[in-house]
Design brief:
This protein has 463 residues and is of the alpha/beta class. The protein is 35% helix and 20% strand. A six-stranded mixed beta sheet has the order 2-3-1-4-5-6, sandwiched between helices. It has a six-stranded mixed beta sheet with strand order 8-9-7-10-11-12, with helices on both faces.
Length: 463
């Protein structure tokens, strides 16, 4: 196991910026607004001679009500699992009373810590550090995380506290099937993640829009590995006004593109909304496997459940291949069926075909139902071969394929889907016209053919 380094401090001191610098990524959402980070972010730092896990946490505001209490609990969990804590402060704001409280708590826990004074760019370094000398720490590390300065000094302060035994091989940060959980705000995405993990990994609140960033969590369930991606809720574009929410939506769309299977979570009591259909459209644009999940199923009456099923059948007719699962994330019912549906969707998405079985299927489909005539000629479908996976792609060669009716293309898609038992994944069909071997060639007549042609012309004129 790699050692863990937790970044803690007041809100808006630059912890997420430092996290991105240490991990050399842009995974953490960064903006000049306090309280942006609410959950724990994990990444691998390769600076220095020994890699370690770095944890970004929410800011400790000192408030004892609302979502601040939930954020503080996440910070305490991060400190509890850390090998060393990096206490990040703000040189421009100076030493605050909350800084003293955080440092006092770290000393009570007995955790080794390093005090990093961030935002020293443009300031006199010695004067900035002098203000924090009252903390009674033997060494203060100056930083300018937004410019990447001072990272080497921070690494020199961290490395003496890391274990001497370095792991022979750095484990991958993500393993298994990447599963993104998307949906509108307050439908229970974070509750589902916590229930699958069996712990309070992400902040859960009745306040809509609690999750602002995409959180990746590796888990192992029934002997299989997954990486769950908890995303921010996506509202209608007309209701999105704050810049932070716009960045959160961009992160969600990026998570859809990075996932292998997408779980669309919706509120069973509200049925399928226009925004749910829009999110499915984004999933289809990325050609990702899909599982539709109706949450809060336990709170519905028999009549409401029937209405929800009718709504799913009517509004999601364009993704009939996606499985529908009904769960209660709060009580944990239906989760086994959900993960089985994820496994089936992923297996279908990566399924490989041979050219011979595709050609046999195409021949059977063509003989069972031939395409309608186009200007008196029937399009010909000659042979097929695989074109890739995730989603499975079938390339069909023939003539006049550009004139195939959309209804016939849907027939072929449904035939292949039924023939190969594909569920939960889109199927891509690519049609290619064969080149005409006589294109651009002129048939030159011989002398005898020319004389025969002239005789026929004269005979036609006499008649």
């Amino acid at each position: 196991m790699l050692p863990v380094v937790a970044l803690v401090g007041r809100p808006n001191v630059g912890k997420s910026t430092l996290f991105n610098v240490l991990t050399r990524t842009r995974d953490a959402l960064v903006a000049d607004q306090p309280g942006l980070t609410r959950d724990r972010h994990y990444g691998i730092c390769h600076h220095g001679s020994r890699p370690f896990v770095v944890v970004d946490t929410g800011g400790l505001s000192g408030e004892d009500e609302g979502i601040d209490v939930l954020m503080a609990r996440q910070v305490q969990l991060a400190i509890g699992e850390a090998t060393i804590v990096v206490f990040v402060t703000d040189a421009r704001a100076g030493l605050m009373a909350q800084d003293r409280e955080i440092l006092g708590d770290l000393r009570k826990r007995g955790k080794p810590f390093v005090v990093a004074v961030n935002k020293t760019d443009g300031l006199d370094e010695h004067a900035s550090l002098a203000d924090f000398a009252a903390l009674g720490v033997d060494r203060l590390v100056p930083l300018a995380a937004s410019h990447g300065r001072g990272v080497d000094g921070l690494m020199n302060a961290i490395e003496p506290h890391l274990p001497d035994e370095a792991p022979e091989e750095v484990p991958a940060t993500e393993e298994g099937i990447r599963v993104a959980i998307v949906g509108r705000p307050n439908v229970g995405k974070s509750t589902l993640v916590n229930r699958l993990l069996g712990e309070d990994r992400v902040v859960v609140s009745d306040i809509a829009g609690t999750t602002r960033d995409s959180i990746r969590v590796p888990i192992e369930r029934d002997g299989k590995r997954y990486t769950l991606i908890d995303t921010a809720g996506v509202r209608r574009r007309a209701r999105v006004e704050e810049a932070i929410e716009k960045f959160s939506i961009i992160k969600t769309l990026q998570s859809i593109a990075a996932a292998q299977v997408v779980i669309l979570l919706l509120d069973a009591s509200e049925g399928v909304s226009e925004q749910d259909a829009t999110l499915i459209g984004h999933v289809l644009n990325e050609s990702r496997a899909l599982v539709v999940v109706a949450n809060k199923w336990d709170n519905l009456t028999k009549y409401q459940r029937e209405q929800c099923e009718v709504s799913l059948e009517r509004r999601l007719d364009f993704v009939q291949w996606a499985e529908r699962i009904f769960i209660s994330a709060k009580h944990g019912s239906g989760l086994r069926e959900l993960m089985k549906a994820v496994d089936r969707a992923y297996a279908s998405a990566i399924k490989k075909f041979s050219s011979s079985e595709l050609n046999r299927a195409l021949e059977t489909a063509y003989q069972s139902y031939q395409p309608p005539l186009v200007r008196g000629h029937a399009p010909k479908l000659r042979y097929a071969h695989p074109g890739g996976t995730n989603p499975p792609t079938v390339v069909i060669h023939g003539s006049r394929t550009k004139h195939l009716a959309d209804s016939y293309k849907r027939y072929l898609e449904n035939f292949f889907r039924k023939r190969f038992k594909l569920v939960g994944t889109p199927l891509r069909l690519e049609f290619r016209d064969g080149e005409n071997p006589f294109a651009g060639r002129k048939n030159e007549l011989t002398d005898s053919q020319q004389r025969k042609r002239q005789r026929m012309i004269r005979r036609a004129k006499k008649q």
